[in-house]
Amino acid sequence: MHIDPTEEAALAFVRRNPQGPLVMVNLLRFRAQADYAQAPGLGGAGRSGREAYGLYEAAIQPLLEASGGEVLFDGVGGGWFIGPEAERWDRVLMVRQASLEAFFAFAQMPEAQVAAAHRRAALEDSRLLPVLPR
């Protein structure tokens, strides 16, 4: 399960020292039932993972836009055409960030930290791949 970045992954990303805009490719697999064990105050009883992720998106969208970011692509996933047969992703997002600095500032906003609890509750697994222009 991969929900949050490790410290090592974050440092490696910073060391790449990307300049200018970058795109974050998100692969998301939702839980059947959201798990709010780490944030019981958010009252997620009976909420599906998709519903919890919808709450995350509603809270995060204005923060993303205020930081200069935007969703470039939002699609429904499934099984791989080339890749492990047993692996599936429910949703694929491509999010443009204005810069590395803007991304980290956005991710560290107090409102984003609160919204992230819905994301953690929603996801069974995820991948986040920073992609830089050629």
Tell me what you see in this structure.
- With 134 residues, this protein is of the alpha+beta class.
- The chain has one domain: Alpha-Beta Plaits (2-Layer Sandwich).
- It is 36% helix and 28% strand.
- It has helices at residues 7-15, 49-66, 100-107, 110-122; strands at residues 22-30, 70-79, 88-97, 123-131.
- It has a four-stranded antiparallel β-sheet with strand order 2-3-1-4.
- Helix 2 packs antiparallel against helix 4 (110-122).
- The chain is globular.
Q: What does this entry show, briefly?
A:
Helix content is 36%, strand content 28%. The protein is an alpha+beta fold and 134 residues long.
Radius of gyration: 15 Å
Count up the helices.
4
What portion of the residues fall into strands of 2 or more residues? 25-35%
Q: What is the CATH third-level topology name?
A: Alpha-Beta Plaits
Could you give the order of the helices and strands? Answer: HEHEEHHE
Placed side by side, the strands forming the largest sheet appear as 2-3-1-4
Report the strand count: 4
Low-confidence stretches: none
Give short descriptive properties of this protein.
134 residues; Alpha-Beta Plaits; 4 strands; 36% helix
Write the layout of secondary structure elements.
Elements (H helix, E strand, L loop, with lengths): L6 H9 L6 E9 L18 H18 L3 E10 L8 E10 L2 H8 L2 H13 E9 L3
Antiparallel strand pairs: 1-3, 1-4, 2-3
Helix pairs in contact: 2-4
